[in-house]
Amino acid sequence: MNYAIIGFGRMGRAVDEQASGRGHRRTVVVDPTGQGAEILPRIEASALRDVDVAFEFSLPGGAEGNVLSLLEAGVPVVCGTTGWRPSAAAEAAMRASRAGVVVAPNFSVGMNLFYRLVREAARLYGTAGLHQPFVFEAHHRGKRDVPSGTARHLASILVETDPRLNEVHEGNPAEPLPDGTLHVASVRAGSEPGTHTVGYDGEYDRITLTHGARSRAGFALGAVLAAEWIAKRPGLHGFDEVLETLLASR
Q1: Which of 10, 17, 19, 174 fits 24 for a cystine, CB–CB 3.0-4.6 Å?
Q2: Over the stretch 95-138, which tens digit does the pLDDT of each residue have?
Q3: Which residues pair with 210 in a beta bridge?
Q4: Catalytic (active site) residue 24
């Protein structure tokens, strides 16, 4: 594939390394803060003529416009911009698009399998009713969104699955949390690439499930797998569909 990278920060560079390692060719880089003649400051339709897929890992404020511009140009998109939540209008446009788009808060294969473990844990512990759940996440100091999109997705899984839960509290509570509230706590320090823990605390024991990323390479590889998968599929998709195909092929 010929690919474009929109947003050439740490994740964009990690994706570039994984994509080139799998034999794909970078033809366009767009980054408003980038340096060098080969980096465009904005998306230009004329530069996308030979692009088969674009990776969008920019900033939350620009992600929606970037994705819609790419789809309007007929370029499939893999978008993992942290902190971006598409508007209702953008979601409708993505679903109707003839060029496909995969949007996910986390493209790690390991994390997406972790989601499935968490869902089953929520079902079991929620039914038993003896342990209270929580979510904890830690990332490097430079991460822009708090809590992470992954932590929010884990929280949504718990609320959807555990019948005792009906709302989420993010950050440190100023007073005791009411029953039915899931607490999501965050830490930002150092160079931590990402740790997420889902825990169940009870009177007699505590159970924790933890996913710890060693680097951005796992996220980047998943994004490249998504790009290979989306090539001829229209509309909006999640990484869970990519994972289903991967599991079936094994």
Answers
A1: 19
A2: 999 999 999 999 999 999 999 999 999 999 999 999 999 999 99
A3: 197
A4: no
